[in-house]
Amino acid sequence: DGGITQSPKYLFRKEGQNVTLSCEQNLNHDAMYWYRQDPGQGLRLIYYSQIVNDFQKGDIAEGYSVSREKKESFPLTVTSAQKNPTAFYLCASSIGTGLGGELFFGEGSRLTVL
Amino acid sequence: AQKITQTQPGMFVQEKEAVTLDCTYDTSDQSYGLFWYKQPSSGEMIFLIYQGSYDEQNATEGRYSLNFQKARKSANLVISASQLGDSAMYFCAMREGGTNAGKSTFGDGTTLTVKP
Fold first, then answer.
1. Chain A window 2-61: which residues touch B at a Cβ cutoff of 8 Å?
2. Beta-strand (E) ranges in B1-116?
3. Burial of residue A70 (number of CB atoms within 10 Å: 0-12, 13-18, 19+)
4. Alpha-carbon gap: A50 to the closest alpha carbon of chain B (Å)
5. Phi then psi for B49, rounded to 5 degrees?
6. Nearest chain A Cα to B9, which residue?
């Protein structure tokens, strides 16, 4: 079945460590996104990529990095520079960047800093 | 900058009744897309309905309809005949065009509880 796979589902990190969250899609979508969700709040955009080998900062990019070397993959690295990384992270994709393209989401990765 | 406002942190509705979840938006763009997503307790986001800024008719998808009032910049979600499985968090979102093409902004959500 086509969809978005995020891994790991749960991740624990010690302060000062970098961690990478994986996001893979087999929907043949051009655009991919990373969102952060804090408890009881909406989604905030971290990074997005409209096409392979290109990506743009979202509203809260500080302390995060991404790459888009393949169409199917858009990994997110949470660096030690991110001061409050404990959150729920959602990866999404869309066919393109047209106004009518809904987002398809993965099941999310929950990161906890110990 | 685009902004989405959902003023109802929590809503209750009796099973089989209709409920309206409010959403207002702020943008200077003429072209934009409006979406509603559902997030059950499992965390996954599910697309419900879409309305384009130039669409004259309100969008409908099964029990979901979007009450679009462009002049008031509102895009309320109406769920008819509520079911227990509708209990979830609901998010309104807006998608940009132009140089920020594809970028979506979300509201803070409304938690809907359906009572038996």
1. 31, 33, 35, 40-45, 48, 50, 56, 58
2. 3-5, 10-14, 19-21, 24-26, 33-39, 46-52, 60-61, 64-69, 74-79, 88-95, 104-106, 110-115
3. exposed
4. 7
5. -160, 150
6. A40
Of B4, B45, B52, the CB nearest to A100: B52
> Which of B89, B103, B105 to mutate to probe the A interface, most A CBs <10 Å?
B103
Q: Is A64 on the interface with B (CB under 8 A)?
A: no
Report the alpha-carbon distance of residue B52 to residue A87 in Å, rounded.
31
Q: pLDDT tens for chain A, 114 residues: list them.
A: 679 999 999 999 888 899 999 999 999 999 999 999 998 889 999 999 999 999 999 999 999 999 999 999 999 999 988 889 999 999 999 998 788 889 999 999 999 998
Task: Answer whether B11 touches A (CB < 8 Å).
Answer: no
Burial profile A78-109: b = 16 or more Cβ within 10 angstroms, e = fewer: beeebeebebbbbbbbbeebebebbbbbbbbb
Structural contact between residues B76 and B35, judged by C-beta atoms closer than 8 angstroms:
no
